[in-house]
Every structure is written in C-alpha cells, then in structure tokens.
## 1
Amino acid sequence: LHTSVHTCRKPKLPPNPLPPFYCCPPASASLSEPINFTLPDPAEPLRVRRPVHAVGAEYMAKYERAIALMKALPHTDPRSFYQMANIHCAYCTGSYRQTGNQELDMQIHFSWFFFPFHRAYLYFFERIAAKLLGEPDFALPFWSWDVPDGMRMPPEFANSSSPLYDPVRNPRHAPPSLVDLGFVGVESNRTDEQQIQHNLRTMYKQMIGNAALPSLFHGQPFRAGQSDKPGPGTVELSPHNTVHTWTGDIALTNVENMGTYYSAGRDPLFYPHHSNIDRLWQAWREVGAARGYRGHVDFMDHDWLDSSFLFYDEESRLVRITVCNVLDTEKLRYKFDGVGMPWVNARP
Ligand code: C2O
C-alpha cells in the first residue's frame, strides 16, 4: 500500500474540531518527488532512548529545547512542530488516498501499519530534534507507563510555563494521578497499589496472553484495494488508545488533543508516549525469543514489508520509507535502555 502527496486533500474531521483544519504537507512538497529512504551510516553513534522518569532534568531540558525550536519554526517548514503534528493528522483522517485506488483512504491505525508507521514517524522526529539541537546522539525519551515508576504523567509536561505543556488535557490527570491503562472515560476507584497491579496485569494480557500471533499483536492485514481499519492489535487498543484517552480533555467532544487522531500530535507528550509504544514492539519480540513463543515474530508478507509512508527528514527532504526498512532498531541506530518488564509475570 502506498500513497502520494499529490493526492493529499482536506481531512475528514470529527464534529467540532479545534483548528487548524488542513493537514497536508506544505505546498512545496508536491514540487519534488520523494527520495527513497536509505539506512543511516552504521558508524553513527547508537542513540539510547531512556525513560523520562530516569533520564534526569538536564536531559528533559534538551527535549524541551527541541520542542521549543520546532515550535519556533515557521509553519511552512516541514520540520516545524506544526507540520510534525500534521503528518500524523494526514495519515489518519483520510487526507491521503491509496495509490491506484483514489476512492479508498490510507489510514495507519487499526491495522498492521500501526507499529511500523509510528516507528518511522519517531525516527524522523528524533533526527530532526537532534539536528535542531546540534546534538547528533540525542534520543527521544520514552514515557514508560508500563512500569510502576513511570505510571504518572511526567511532571515536566504538567508545568504550564514549559513548551512541553498542553492546556488541552484532562485536568484531573496531572501528576500525581496514576494512569489507568484500561481507561475508557470513567475514573476508577482503585487505590494506587490496586491500580499498579491492574496496569501490570493489563500489560501481561496485551503483550503475552492475547498477543501470541503477529496478527493479534500488530493488527489485521490492510492491503491495497481494501477499506481501511480492518482491525487493531492488542497494544494499539490498550494501553495505546487508553493512554491517549486518559491524557486528552474528556470534557471536549473528541477528547482533544491526545484523545483523537487529528489532534494527538499537537501534544508534546505524544512523542514520548509513542517512544514507549515503539519499545513495546521490541519488547514483544524479545519476550518471544527469551521464552520460546514462536508466534512473537513480525509478518513476512510482502504486502506489509513493501508498503511505504512519506516523511520529511532532518534536511527537509521528502522521503519514502518502507516497512521493511524499520524492522531493526539497531540498523536505524537507536536502542532502548533503562527499564525492565515487570509485567512479564503478572499473569492475571
Ligand atoms: Cu497514531 Cu498514538 O496514534
């Protein structure tokens, strides 16, 4: 499945959306054909993504500076925070159509594109941040809501004078509120200790108990010529969607910003949230290898491997990247470190 910037058009938005209402790449995009992605130089230093709760204030100040720099770029700049958020919007609101099937939408949620699309998205986001900071080994920290020490919104994001702050969130879920990985809009009345155990059991179910096959973990195949959203994987529904809904402002029609596709990328917390999702893809394969779960492997289907997405790189070049390019994080020159997987034995 492929798409092209030439076919990008007005998004299909839910009722009462918050502006802006247009998500396609800047007009300059259609002037150039995308270049094909090539892997970074294997001699590049390996970026190490660490948990927000453990990287330290100095490191978080870097992330904060990167967001401030992106926000300061003009909206026409493909590296601006505005355009970064729009990339996500365009890929989930029917802005893009399927190449060869103009009446059908490209959509990267609720299918097997969920993990690879977001991995590629963060890859470019991280490199743009590193470039703007002038720190070639900058790595995107992850919000590890799956381990007890990370189960609160990191305080940096709740400071109203920080560029990491987003006023369009649920005010009840500022720290020290504990995240509910099963959140569907209703406050739970669990104690903190009960909530932690509940969250760990949810992780076990979604990563192990219910995720024994690639289609269960990743989501259903979505091929050219088919309609979108064939079916999500375990982790996409929960904790991914539930943490989005938990973060967004439940008083708004669409639980903006985090709680709905078109606006989720406008919250600087989106990226550390997805950095953790990206880590869980890696964790699912590692747990499978360690325990001999033979279904914990990625698809080998060419309709998946050869599908492509469009992004801008740190040099503002339009790049076409395929799923097969993002299966190995070391080849993309980053890895995860700093937390364990306390849920592997939390069998409900
Ligand atoms: Cu593309 Cu977390 O959504």
## 2
Amino acid sequence: AADIRPMVAGNWKMNGTRSELDQIRAIAHGVSGPLSKKIDALICPPSTLLYVATTLTVDTKLLVGAQDCHQKARTGAHTGDISAEMIRDCFATHVIVGHSERRKEHGEDNYTVSMKARAAYDQGLTAIVCIGETRAQHKAGRTMDVIHRQLNESMPADATAENTIVAYEPVWAIGTGQTPGADDVARVHARMRADLVERFGARGEAIRLLYGGSVKPQNAPELLSVPHVNGALIGGASLKAADFLAIYHAYE
Ligand code: G3P
C-alpha cells in the first residue's frame, strides 16, 4: 500500500572499527533533515560498535540495529553470541535475522530464524527477517517457491508491521554488482505481499518489504520505485556516508 513508510537500512556486516564512526556521524547528520518526516534510516554496525553508535546518534533521526541475535532472548551459556536483551540494553531498536551469510556460514534454517525473530519480539526489538534464493535456485526457476517457503517458515505467527520488516535479498545479487531486473523484483515483492496478506490479513498489508543486493546510488531510483519495495537493505554502499545518503535521497 502507498502509505507504508519507507526505510533505508545499512548492514555493515563484519566491517567497521572505531575509525569508521565518522561515517555513522555523517549518516546521522544527513538523515536528520526534512526527508526524515517521510523516510526512516537505520544503520546496523558490528556489535562491537553498537553501543557507541547509539550514543553518537542520540538526538538524530538515525536508528541503530544489530546484525544478528541468539534465539534465546536473554542470558545463557552461548559463547560468542549476543542476545536480544543485550541489543536492547545498547539502546538499539532493530536486529537483522536470517541474513543469507548467517544461513550459509552458520547453518541457520528457517526455524532458527523464526526463533530469533521471536527473541527480538520478546525484547521489543523489530526483526528484519531476510530471505532470498541462491543463484542455483534462481537459474532453476525456483525463486517463487523458495521465497514462499522461506517467508512462511521464517516469520513467526505473531509478526506485525511494528515488530517485523522483511528483506528480500537474492543471494546471487549480494556483493556481486548484479541485480534482478525491476520486473523480477516487482514479481517477487508482489508475491511476498500476497503471501503476507493471505497469512496475516490486514496486518500483512502494512509490513515493510525491503530489497537488498547490490543497491547503489545509480540503481536506487529504479529499484526503490518498484511497487511493494518499501525501502532498501544496503551492504557495501552503506559503508560510505556519501553513498548511503545518495541512496536515501533517491526518495526526494
Ligand atoms: O544485507 C545487505 C546485503 O546483503 C547486501 O549487500 O553489498 O550487495 O549491498 P550488498
């Protein structure tokens, strides 16, 4: 629906040390002007920078999120993991779950992803649930089936537009400079919208659908104007404030 508030989100992945905090400052400054009345902006730095990032962005319009959380919401013996409670404690408001890099490198399946989303809900965080087909699945013409199943299995039954954002990231488009055509993105996003409405009714109408995978300043105007694309999840181009802001300003 036309009244969904768009979001431009950046996922820094395993990038970013203290010396890149200037980029976060610059992004926060750049997204706090008049366009902030219409568009949300979010940055997801590595967890080592999470607390300092929220501290730096206090009194700005830039939202801060984490890149992953454990499926257990609070404390426990899980060396190396961080919980949704810890993320909230850092004053972050969002957490990415089920990114394809987590699915691939850490063996996370749809069920695990849905548990992580629940952990986020438990702590009042908004989960950004990522789905997307691999290149092989794409080539085999299985995109729609894969998306349908991932969406259905990765999203908890109590998902709402407040606690959940969906990001469609074709795995073959991530970090490759290749993107699906606008028509293909439109087909997938229309299907996701239809699936959400079928499952959640009116709630499903309002859930944001982001596109991710090689979003750059040059292709952002086209990708962001595709029907049912309610924003972008940006990897590489979110590391430089100038690129992030150029994509954000595609909404002008
Ligand atoms: O989560 C965002 C990401 O996977 C897209 O990465 O570098 O292709 O924009 P990139």
